[in-house]
Amino acid sequence: MRKSALVAAPSLALGIAVLAMPGIASAAGSQSYQATLGALNNSAAAGTVMIDLNGSEATVTEKVSGLAGMFNGAPYPHVQHIHIGAKGECPTTAADTDKDGVISTTEGGPSYGAIGTTLSTSGDTSPAAGTTLTVAPSGASFEYHRTFTLDDKTLASLQDGTAVVVVHGLDPATLPAAAQSKPSDLVPSLPLAATSPALCGALTASQMSSMPSGSADTGGGSTAGAEDQGLLALGGGLLAAGALVGGVALRRRSAVQG
Questions:
Q1: Bridge-partner residues for 82, per DSSP?
Q2: Computed from CA positions of residues 88, 94, 100, 102, in that sequence, does the dihedral angle turn out positive or negative?
Q3: End-to-end CA separation in angstroms for the chain
């Protein structure tokens, strides 16, 4: 009986010590996701995006360049979203089912899904703001940084690997002739170019704690934060080991008492 108590005590102490380690408990609900944004519809644009998640609170940091710069004499508004609930991937040219030379938003839907969250500059982040041009970042290049609460559906899609960031808005002059006069499949009062996807990137779990510092098309940059992830993995392993040893000790104790 004394031996069982001695076996159980160190395992319990080990579990308490791991939980008390700085950052272990507080970081347990934190995760980062990242994507390299690649060009769609020959947009020649590029970008990177990082989502730092703490519970349901998301901090989104994004850098893009090479987009259409002007629209009707003003900086071009680029509506952008986290799309969810489909394959979690960006469409290929095969998605252009009507063969007009442009993958429209709805044609890309089977690959990246519906709007889960609107990456707006202010106000509403729900799908209802998905085509609100006044809260879209604008211009050929921009940096986006905003913290807000994610809804349950977007959270679930991030966690199961089916969340995709899509930035919309093409230069009408670059579209094939067959598509230049077409209306948007989302907002018929706008041209097709205004809402068709220009950039796309599937979000994956990241070990980085900051945006990649390399060029947007390579995703290169620092891997700072990997050590913290390793520490979390180590802590989880130690907790599991402690629980296993403790369970064995308790079974031995019950056998002796019986």
A1: 117, 165
A2: positive
A3: 11
150: closest CA among 137, 139, 159? 159
CA atoms within 13 A on the CB side of 134: 2
> What is the β-pairing status of strands 164-168 and 70-71?
unpaired
Radius of gyration of the chain (CA): 24
Kindly report whether the global pTM for this prediction surpasses the value 0.85. no
Cα distances (angstroms) measured from residue 138 to each of 2, 75, 253: 71, 6, 68
Tens of pLDDT, residues 44-102: 999 999 999 999 999 999 999 999 998 778 999 999 999 999 999 999 999 999 999 99
Q: Could you give phi then psi for residue 179, rounded to 5 degrees?
A: -105, -15
CA atoms within 13 A on the CB side of 237: 6
Burial classification of residue 218, based on how many CB atoms lie within 10 Å of its CB (0-12 exposed, 13-18 middle, 19 or more buried): exposed
Please give the structure tokens belonging to residue 73.
């004499």
